[in-house]
Amino acid sequence: MAADPLDPLNALDLLEPLTTAHRPMGLRERKKLKTRIAIRRATHRLIAEQGYEATTVERIAEAAEVSPSTVFRYFPSKEDIVLTDEYGPVMEEALRRRPAGEEPLESLRSVLTRTMASLLAHEPEETRRRARLMVEVPAVRARMTGTMAGTSRLLAGVLSDRTGRGADDLEVRVLTAAVLGALGEAMVYWAERDQRDDLVALVHRTLDTLRGGLIL
């Protein structure tokens, strides 16, 4: 039987579509990851069954077989559970492994498009539900900015190292923030159009727009 890509013990297999090397996880890290995934799975299952508003942290905790305080220890809010995935460190590692002379925007393009493809392959329902909630629930859309900012900081740190710029370089921060913001807008656009479009193609189109500007 093939391994479930979302099985907590195989969760870092999500890394494989992006890079073949990663640091082995210790027992403590595996336990934390198992708990995070259990909370996320319970949340998405409950939202699918009873809707977003009816899915309380208390019900999530009960379904995940943890305490409400444990839920809050891993996720500051319900919106964070919906928006957070395990791909931040994966993307960071994949970006470090891009060719040294590659243009930063093209490195980001490769990592983001492959991440979207992997999400659609391994977590299709969660990915689609997350995008719909960005459109339907104002609190989720508002929180998206914060979660994107965290990923942006991770990627900016890698680009700073790769380009020899300072850790707080403005141009690196602007580039990564613009790319991640554009990615979020592409996902909202995808959801508004009932997810009929090819999401990976939309990400390419989005980054083409950042590169070339709006052609009149």
Describe this structure in words.
- Keywords: DNA-binding, Transcription, Transcription regulation.
- Pfam families: TetR_C_14, TetR_N.
- It comes from Streptomyces gobitricini.
- This is TetR family transcriptional regulator.
- The protein is mostly helical.
- The protein folds into two domains: about 10-75, Homeodomain-like (Arc Repressor Mutant, subunit A, Orthogonal Bundle); about 85-210, Tetracycline Repressor, domain 2 (Orthogonal Bundle), CATH 1.10.357.
- It is built from ten helices and no strands.
- Helix 7 (about 125-135) packs across helix 9 (about 170-190) and helix 9 (about 170-190) crosses helix 10.
- The longest helix has 26 residues, at about 140-165.
